[in-house]
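Fig. S4 source data, part A: sequence.
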Amino acid sequence: MRPEIRPRVNPWVVLIFEAMFVTASETLLKVGASHTERVPGWEWTGLYSLESIWIWLAIVLVILSFLCWIYVLRYIPLSIAFPLSNVVHVLIPLSCWIFLGESISVRRWIGIAVVIAGLA
């Protein structure tokens, strides 16, 4: 029988950081993709977006979120952690509204409320 391993850092706090890293990375990917040159015929590759510092920051955050997720899964059952990680479906639209000035329709606000109710 494997001895119980005690976490050094509270996995619930790490789960919050994971959601924040995902939210920030998605927002930065949008910023980076919006500020890169459009090259006719090659836009579909997305390779020109690698010129943006915002894209590289987003990549770092994706890696950090992955490391947090692995840590979380070590201590919290997937059946609990995964539904809670879906808070990003609330945080990403809110961050785009606050930081990017994107609008959120009434229908989307209702969806956000439903997700919050489901998380609760």
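Fig. S4 source data, part B ends here. Residues 82 and 103 are 28 Å apart (CA to CA).
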